[in-house]
Amino acid sequence: MLKPTDAILKVVVACICGSDLHPYHNMHAHEHGEGEAMGHEVIGRIEEIGSEVAGFKKGDLVIVPFAVGDNTCPTSF
Predict the structure, then answer these.
(1) In Å, what is the CA distance from 57 to each residue of 50, 64, 71?
(2) Which residues pair with 42 in a beta bridge?
């Protein structure tokens, strides 16, 4: 775990969404020379949880929608 705000999931199910298909169409090249997360919608079980993560506990089944599946997460919804 890198930060106390992190949670580590064991992925149970993953899928792609429509945005994952853009590279096959006409998606522009990445300006920063870095890739982009694909297949970023998952359902998983929390295996480890940081001390600053609130509202969840180890063992919880969680859904990670595309809006928060990019290694960042708002503090509230």
Answers:
(1) 10, 15, 19
(2) 14, 64
3, 77, 21: which is closest to 62 by C-alpha?
77
Handedness of CA 64, 69, 71, 77 (dihedral sign): negative
Distance of CA 42 to the CA centre of its chain: 7
The whole-angstrom separation of Cα 36 and Cα 19 is 11
Q: What is the pTM of this model?
A: 0.64
Give per-residue pLDDT as tens, 42-61. 899 999 999 999 999 999 99
Pairwise CA distance, residues 70 & 74, whole Å: 11
CA 56, CA 19: separation in Å to the nearest integer?
28
